[in-house]
Amino acid sequence: MAWTRPTPLSTSSLEELYVGMSDDLALMPDAVSPEPGSGDARADASDTAKKRQILDGARRVFFEHGFEAASMNDITRAAGVSKGTIYAYFPSKEALFEALVNFEREEQVDRLVAFDVTRRDIDQVLHEFAVRLVSAMTDPRSVARLRMVVGVAPRFPEIGRKFFEAGAHISRRKLGDFLTIKAEEGLLVLDDPSVAARQFLDLTVADIVRRVIFGLDTDLGGEAIAQNATQATAMFLKAYGPAAT
């Protein structure tokens, strides 16, 4: 078959072809561009989930074996991640333990120390808070955590300090803020709300939690916790209620 030279496209034909291609491109859907920061948000979410996975594994190991006996190999197996992944987030066993203590303590305090400042039934508010606080602090997991912190604090005082600041210190500050508001409303008579808050916390937790920590009350029931809250609230209001003056 004889070869036939292709007919060159005229200028007008080239223009028609270009226009047609442009029209086709115009009908194609636009490529979806990621929203600004969406990649960072996904990375942050993945990062948080991985840290939580590691902390969950560490919690099981620390509570089962204690801080001293726990190994990073144990935590690696419990968390289901590589040792390299753990060290990418936490440079040492001490740093991991500290992160776990801070995470659990802050999470617990946020739930416990929440006061409705609009309420005026201060006796009931304090009673409910005392029940919540003691119930949480005498929970077996909380008791195990406190024992571990007390055990490692001499070697790692920073862990003990942060544990206190994330728990007792925040509780005292938030309770003090609530008591200040109630004093301004005339429901309490206080010279120093911070001192009053510390005294109420001591009345509420000092004896009962100490007994649990030393294993003297291993099965504390709701009735005993409620009775303790009633006594602490009554003694506090006897000292700081308006009738006291």
UniProtKB/TrEMBL annotation:
<dbReference type="Pfam" id="PF14246">
    <property type="entry name" value="TetR_C_7"/>
</dbReference>
<dbReference type="InterPro" id="IPR001647">
    <property type="entry name" value="HTH_TetR"/>
</dbReference>
<keyword id="KW-0804">Transcription</keyword>
<keyword id="KW-0238">DNA-binding</keyword>
<feature type="region of interest" description="Disordered">
    <location>
        <begin position="29"/>
        <end position="49"/>
    </location>
</feature>
<dbReference type="InterPro" id="IPR009057">
    <property type="entry name" value="Homeodomain-like_sf"/>
</dbReference>
<dbReference type="GO" id="GO:0003700">
    <property type="term" value="F:DNA-binding transcription factor activity"/>
</dbReference>
<dbReference type="InterPro" id="IPR039536">
    <property type="entry name" value="TetR_C_Proteobacteria"/>
</dbReference>
<feature type="DNA-binding region" description="H-T-H motif">
    <location>
        <begin position="71"/>
        <end position="90"/>
    </location>
</feature>
<keyword id="KW-0805">Transcription regulation</keyword>
<dbReference type="InterPro" id="IPR050109">
    <property type="entry name" value="HTH-type_TetR-like_transc_reg"/>
</dbReference>
<dbReference type="InterPro" id="IPR023772">
    <property type="entry name" value="DNA-bd_HTH_TetR-type_CS"/>
</dbReference>
<feature type="domain" description="HTH tetR-type">
    <location>
        <begin position="48"/>
        <end position="108"/>
    </location>
</feature>
<dbReference type="Pfam" id="PF00440">
    <property type="entry name" value="TetR_N"/>
</dbReference>
<protein>
    <submittedName>
        <fullName>TetR/AcrR family transcriptional regulator</fullName>
    </submittedName>
</protein>
<dbReference type="GO" id="GO:0000976">
    <property type="term" value="F:transcription cis-regulatory region binding"/>
</dbReference>
